[in-house]
Design goal:
The protein is α/β, with parallel strands linked by helices. It contains twelve helices and eleven strands.
Length: 320
Amino acid sequence: MRKSFLVLSSLLAMSGAALAQDWPTRAVTVVVPFSAGSTPDVAARIVSDRLQARLGQPFVVENKPGASGNLGTAAVAKATPDGYTIGVSIIGPLAINTLLMPSMPYDPAKDLAPISIITSQPSALVVSKELAVTKVGDLINLLKSNPGKYNYGSIGNGSLSHLAMEALALQSGSKVVHIPFRGSPDAITALLRNDVQMGMLPIGAVAPLAENGQLRLLAVSAAQRMKQFPDLPTLEEVGLTEVVADAWVGLIAPKPISADIASKLESEAKSILAEPAVREKLQAQMTNAIGSSAAEFQARVDADFARWNRVIKAGNVRIE
């Protein structure tokens, strides 16, 4: 009996390895839980194009926006875990939404396998040109002197841009009113009109407007100063060490996906994101190529979950 068990185990291991070696033998669907043209969509399409070229099968991007990213992420979580439906997602559907929403259509820890963080885009602390501040210290002094007078725009309740500004208010001891919008375009329009006076928004979305003088950048969430803006300090440089606003995009798969297929996907993602042409293409979008391991991806999710849990509790953040 023991010999039979060992033989069976060996055969299963061999079949799993063979499955990974053959995969994919047909088209793979890549679900994006946000609309076409969004940062996750752009990252997914760049990586999908290279996966298709390297693996010889179509990788078809399918956009499923809605419910703060939960709709598309749920589609991945509920898919057959055979490697033919994968997806991308961000910190909201993978962690923050579980802290803010009374119920979720999936359990990120039980239903989703992290594969690799593929990209990360810094956010910028940006203000309306009508606001008479040019430095972060000036902004904080203004807010502390006028509690509740000024508004900030975010790309939605519970979004990274929402929680990052809450973290700024908490760390600086200031009070500013949150005005949520449906996405970056609406939040930026409000900034241009001075309906809101500030925000923590994706650098790629606000940089062109700052370059032509329509908005003013005060700081960036990158670990180091960006080469495109060498005079723009990082949030950490100006003392906002608790404000982390890098918007990463991760490659995910439904559990229990074969360990061999997951490993193959991780390896392919790392190789693709090391390609100079891919890195240059992403850099043009002010997005950094990452290519992490699955373990590093999970560690980042866990760290962000703990960080934003503290902010949500301290700031008594609620979504309607």
